[in-house]
Amino acid sequence: MIPHSRPTVSAEDAERVARVVRSGRLAQGAEVEAFERELATRLGVAAVAAVSSGSAALELALRALDVGPGDEVVVPTYACDALHHAVTRCGAAPVLADADPETFGPSAKDVAHRLTRRARAVVVVHPFGLALDLDAFLALGVPVVEDCAQAIGARVAGRAVGSRGALAIGSFYATKLITSGEGGAVAGPAERVARVRDARDYDEREELIPRFNFKLTDIQAALGRSQLGRLDTFVARRRAIATRYRARLGSVAGCHPPRDRGERHVFHRFVVTIERPLGPLIDDLRERGVMARRPVFRPIHRALGLAGYPEADRLWTQCLSLPCYPSLADAEVDAVGAALAEALQA
Questions:
Q1: Tell me: the pLDDT tens digits for 156-198?
Q2: How is the chain split into domains, by residue range?
Q3: Where are the alpha helices (H) located in 44-118, listed in sequence order?
Q4: CB distance 223 to 181 below 8 Å
Q5: Residue 290 contacts residue 339 (beta carbons within 8 Å)
Q6: Which fold has domain 11-228?
Q7: Of 218, 185, 225, nearest in space to 10 by CA
Q8: pLDDT digit string (tens) for 281-337?
């Protein structure tokens, strides 16, 4: 069985982690500080705070922007539930925006339509590895949080994703572009990131105000640093896989691969549009030894019983994510392409 996702971990990664374990200094410390500096350099921002997960990063970023009760935060409905959770944990109200049919990210036009005077922030997800152009979102006059959980390494007009918003967040889950096992980060101006650092740790503080235990460990940071050093290699392999898929699937009837976007796309996911029901197709591919899945489990509005998001509904019924990760061999890419072509012709 070819899995949909798989970590890419090396012997050097293991040795970097083992070195920290042997040192006896396991909690947040020098490795985390070094990881933060290296991430800041890579993203082209003033500062980074490493935290325990991408979900924690979202919540802390919103809190650093003073999001709280009575506020609204616009988030895409065609995205993972973590966005909704982060907003509600801050006491604010999530406002859902429909998807852009071209990028699969939030529609700037729909975001603008849903803004009210209570809007405190907009979360812009760079979907599946594609860096969005932020100009239309920044023009709205509301602080933008860039969700780069699937797009670290992508660039727009020569600028790194995550470098233009009021803040940006990243995720280092096991199957993300780089991994620390679990982990996340908040990136941006030093004064805002300092607020994140203050809130991620509650211990030995004079003021008894709400803080969290959202720290990253040096064990995790050691793995993250080792992975970050190979990010360019990882991205090059993902792009090569995407090119190979496009060559194999470009002429398959009923299948529409994503086009080449150059430096803007790092292909955390290779998402094709399919002109037939996905459920039976996913089952068919499993029978052929390939794990494929919808790139979004289900749009948030569907969990809430809401309507009025036609593009997100369409993408959910048509978009299929194929295996795409650096350790995927060319023979496996070809096997996935052949299985999909055969399943669509059956």
A1: 999 999 999 999 999 999 999 999 999 999 999 999 999 999 9
A2: 11-228, 231-345
A3: 54-64, 82-89, 108-114
A4: yes
A5: yes
A6: Aspartate Aminotransferase; domain 2 (3.40.640)
A7: 225
A8: 999 999 999 999 999 999 999 999 999 999 999 999 999 999 999 999 999 999 999
